[in-house]
Amino acid sequence: MKRKLLIEKTDNKIRTYFIEDGDVVEIHSASASGDHADSFRLGDIYIGKVSNIVPNIGAAFIEIQKGVNCYYDMKDVKNAIFTRKSGKKALCIGDELVVQISREAVGTKAATVTGNLSFTGRYAVLTHGNTRIGASSKIPKVQRENYKEKLSSLSNNDFGIIVRTNAKDTPLDDVYEEIRTLREEYYRLVKAAHTRICYSCLKSAPPSYIADLKNVYMDGMESIIIGDKDLYTRIHLFFQAELPEKSDLLELYNDPAFPLDKRYSTRTVLEKALSEKAWMKTGGYLIIQPTEALTAIDVNSGKNTSKSGSEEGAMKVNLEAAREAAKQIRLRNLSGIILVDFINLKEEENTKKLLREFRYYLSKDPIQTTLVDMTALGLVEVTRKKVRRPLYEEERLK
Fold it and tell me: In what helix (H) or strand (E) does residue 161 lie, and over which residues does it extend?
């Protein structure tokens, strides 16, 4: 697969466009000013204070700054790193502990924090709270087992290691070296936490456009095209420090007469990704409506009049809609519960085929996405892991 990244700075936004085989498959947007809305990022680590405990939902709320409350799952308590304890119970109001933002705030929903800290490198992730030694399922099985065997000597009671997909073509020594660096960072942070006051930020995650570069799968990457000189300088410094062998992928695009958004029609792509309606090649379209609780996707035959009303015609529209819905879910970064209302089918075998195809397209998403089932009302229920804000939410932030 051929990959390419476009990074541009326009409208006080830094937007990253992920391109695979010529199609934009993801758009990430962040404030260029680094204001309050962008100050609590995925991966930030704080010393927080328990402000409230809600036993009936098994949750607590933890302040990471005055007035900034985050959701905390009580199951995490067994691995908590406390810097101050207020009582004998497992978790008490007033307790101070180390937490990491695991989901950014979305709409009116508070951010989620966890005591299971993660330290992410290019090739591996160190996980406090999960002591398992494992490897990405996208790495070939034989290589996965080899990694588990080679890294078994690192097994301990403090943390675990997960080898990332990016390590697939990387020498084992390089992976070892990164794990050593992550281990030092982990122990240094835990030690420092006991000397810091409440609300201290122990680790600030890099800007999202840098995190994207750190996490993106480089296999097949042809170029990373940057449409702003200052951005190019910052990204080049990051590559020199973290990925010097990939620095030659960076390209500064600097043509005032024909800017990046015109060269690659990024503004048009963005407008379509924010539109309620997504057209399909056969003339049908999807209506995509995010709400606070879930996202509804409605499939319409639209201008597609071929064998209109027939089972064959409905099936043709539905199969294209399955492909397009999976594409739009990833492109718009929709998450949580997603309900898809396909055109009704009469034959059970066709319904099974549609679900099978839809499940296949969803499996291509790098974020965990699951086709749950078809409800009694004929709606297909999909769940997608919430990690960062959806595109429409990122675009609203000033």
Answer: strand 159-163
> Is the Cβ–Cβ distance between 30 and 14 less than 8 Å?
yes
Whole-number Å distance between alpha carbons of 334 and 386: 8
pLDDT at 190 over 70: yes
Strand 3-10 versus strand 221-226 pairing type: parallel
Q: pLDDT digits over 306-363, tens only? A: 555 688 889 999 999 999 999 999 999 999 999 999 999 999 999 999 999 999 999 9
Cα separation, 322 vs 362, in Å, equals 9
How many alpha carbons lie under 13 Å from residue 152 in its C-beta half-sphere? Answer: 6
Residue 116's contacts (CB-CB under 8 Å, 6 or more residues apart) are 76, 79, 100, 102, 127, 128, 129, 130
Query: What's the rounded Cα separation, in Å, for the pair 24 and 265?
Result: 11
Specify the pLDDT at position 16: 95
Q: Yes or no: say if 79 and 128 are a contact pair by the CB < 8 Å rule.
A: yes
